[in-house]
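The pair is quoted verbatim underneath.

:::
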Amino acid sequence: MTRATKPLLLAAIGAVTLGACTPTTTDTGDPRQRTKESALIGAGLGALTGMAVTGGGKRDAKDALVGAAIGAGIGAAIGNELDKQAAELRRDFSSNEIRVVNTGSELVVTMPQGILFATDSASVRPDLQADLRVLARSLNDYPATTVDVIGHTDNTGAASYNQDLSSRRAGSVAAVLTGAGVDPRRLRAYGRGEDQPVASNLTPEGRAQNRRVEIVIRPTA
């Protein structure tokens, strides 16, 4: 591969990979959609890696293809694990208010405040811990992941109070997970306060959506 054509291939691979990473707004109805996207992302990154290793020369194209094949296999395996875990969580959660989103590279589990905490409280109600135990069991079944537990609030009250409350809520959720057997070394718990709303704070419905805890599950492989 010549130096003139190498940038073109890099640009093409980057465009394909970026397209695969871009969230879709419609449901294709394909339960393996994210697995396929992960394989495509892996192929793009693998090709880039294969080219980077050689740094130029006649073997670039061959190494790019080998890297793409390896990357696709790894990406597909990760995507398949995420697909399985997401499906099992949706099946096992008792609350239909919990959202499980598979981005292709991670799972984002969103639990509204109302199913975990009383107003202004950072203590998880004992009668509302069942779904956290379901999540803990899933995390133990899929141990090759790291987990971020992130607390969020609406913008009611002082920002400093909301930041502290979101941090304490994240810590409480993480404590329930570790109490159910999840290795604490896999967990990070922190709060974002009112800084990352997902809906308008101008309506009660929007504020309710913003009061939440997100559990982000990332494969380590």
Summary: The chain has six helices and five strands.
